[in-house]
């Protein structure tokens, strides 16, 4: 990172995400909640601001992004690096083996959970037509709303095809989610956090995704049901919500 | 160019066998040689037939309007004058490559002794023409490739496809132009286009995809334009280092606007006028026909020119504009006005005046700019009527201001704001006229009244363009 390490975390740090009521989709909400959880765990105050064009404001095109001082950083990975350069880190206490394990599990969540969320949002026709397209295009007027919604859908479907998810059925995706949750549940065991006593960025990421899936209404509740079958994950989510988000109403 | 031949009129006693004229020489009847003129003018003639030869796909009903005047000629000089005018009218339709006029005595059984036949021999343009040209805009240049289908359906409709690649903009577009038969100045244009522009002074990148429909018509002495435009605008940051204010404007928006423009132009040239004036008033209302953007935009342009002693010209110009947002959405950076540069207030960098954030200029919602110029021929007058004629020396004073509106304050506060902190500059330079299309300027400028945040270009400044303050 740059020489901004010397500057302390300012009071007016802001996190940008799409409009909460009408626009934001499951995957973006999950990513944003993960970053918010991470920053709360670090004890860094941040204000959440909703903008209709948040996706286009982001330097990488992905939600969320934070505006700190005069720096703009997007996505959890770079944000973790950024805070580390400022002297705040959650994974300092881990040894190399644990750190590698943490990275592997974070990859798992990104490759499985996030991709599954995107698949369900955009590749499942029912969800796309009833939820994703109307919400994504809500800030815009016709015909721009249709153009942008279909453009996004086409782009996500193309990406799904590129990574080999194009041919999957919804059932297979649910199965993948179940397997991912099983791996997470096994790693978590009876510990409060993934690396025993202290939360790390992995905890923030898992919380962001699982909590959002549990609390978002989709066309059917199959996805939430799959997660609910792992009780330790449920109590994990509740624990983090109560510890770090007690003032937040979900 | 074209030729008007008058064949010998056998019934007339004439001194010479033939009269040959160049059409361009016919300015007024007085140019004809005196003795013949008397004879000809006294002779009443009747135009019996007017033919147009060489028509392919052009429909005849379109042309009857243009040549109708010829029938009204009462004597030979009138016939020549009317045919010349009709020839000009036919050429301005843009569908003929060449038009020649032939005036002959009437032949045939029903020929009157003083009857005349006028024939226009036309050569139509090819069905499809390609063109490659370079274009000069305001401080930018571009290469333009064009494909034109003139006279598509036979009534002077024109279909044009244009691709332009320039220093600041890349664009392509398709447009369809249709004049009203008989009233060429009344026409309708439909277009669809995509323009990508880069604006380094704002660190902004803009892509516009739009469709437009435009109606032009003359009204008394003015030229009016009514236009509807629907544009999908995409804004983005030009660099990672763009200011956050510009980053906040990124994204998509839809603008659907109705606009009206009125132009009165009595100047003899738009690039280097010697006399006359220009008044242009333009207003745009967005948001009432759909779209996200909602505003009312007014701007005007006035220019007056007065020739003085020794071939010099005094020119005064005034520009102004106002952008009023309707509703509670703030205005977009793409709609605001920009000021400064070699084509507006000289001595300041291009569009680098007014509200800014971290070095990126955000434009303003209200502005005014005025200029006073004295153009004189080059001091040493290299060659009268030669290359030296294209140059002028140029003394100028420019002033102006650009600011944002502060809602809640009344119009008085805004006027006061525009009147304080005026930026102005003065200087002198040399100007070169490029045909009737563009002009180049090389000026030595001294900017004054510079406010913090403005970027100046004091000293030598070069400018090229078509519209200068």
UniProtKB/TrEMBL annotation, chain A:
Record bears the keyword Glycosyltransferase: no
UniProt domain Thioredoxin-like fold: residue ranges: 31-126
Location of the protein in the cell: Mitochondrion outer membrane
Entry keyword Heme: no
Domain Metaxin glutathione S-transferase stretches: 178-240
Gene Ontology BP term (one): protein transport
InterPro entries: Glutathione-S-Trfase_C_sf (IPR036282), Glutathione_S-Trfase (IPR040079), Metaxin_GST (IPR033468), Mito_Protein_Transport_Metaxin (IPR050931), Thioredoxin-like_fold (IPR012336)
Principal location: mitochondrion
Entries under SUPFAM superfamilies matching the protein: GST C-terminal domain-like (SSF47616)
GO cellular component: SAM complex
Highest taxon listed in the record's lineage: Eukaryota
UniProt keyword terms in alphabetical order: Acetylation, Membrane, Mitochondrion, Mitochondrion outer membrane, Protein transport, Transport
Family according to the record: Belongs to the metaxin family.
Function statement: Involved in transport of proteins into the mitochondrion.
Subunit note: Interacts with MTX1/metaxin-1. Associates with the mitochondrial contact site and cristae organizing system (MICOS) complex, composed of at least MICOS10/MIC10, CHCHD3/MIC19, CHCHD6/MIC25, APOOL/MIC27, IMMT/MIC60, APOO/MIC23/MIC26 and QIL1/MIC13. This complex was also known under the names MINOS or MitOS complex. The MICOS complex associates with mitochondrial outer membrane proteins SAMM50, MTX1 and MTX2 (together described as components of the mitochondrial outer membrane sorting assembly machinery (SAM) complex) and DNAJC11, mitochondrial inner membrane protein TMEM11 and with HSPA9.
Protein name as it appears in the record: Metaxin-2
Record organism: Monopterus albus (Swamp eel)
UniProtKB/TrEMBL annotation, chain B:
Primary site of residence: mitochondrion
Compartments where located: Mitochondrion outer membrane
GO BP annotation list: mitochondrial respiratory chain complex assembly; protein insertion into mitochondrial outer membrane
Pfam families, sorted: Omp85
Coiled coil regions, renumbered to chain: none
Keywords for the protein's UniProt record, in alphabetical order: Membrane, Mitochondrion, Mitochondrion outer membrane, Transmembrane, Transmembrane beta strand
Keyword Metal-binding appears in the UniProt entry: no
Domain POTRA stretches: 45-125
GO cellular component, one term: mitochondrial outer membrane
Protein topology in the membrane: Multi-pass membrane protein
Keyword Membrane: yes
Membership in a protein family: Belongs to the SAM50/omp85 family.
Protein name according to UniProt: POTRA domain-containing protein
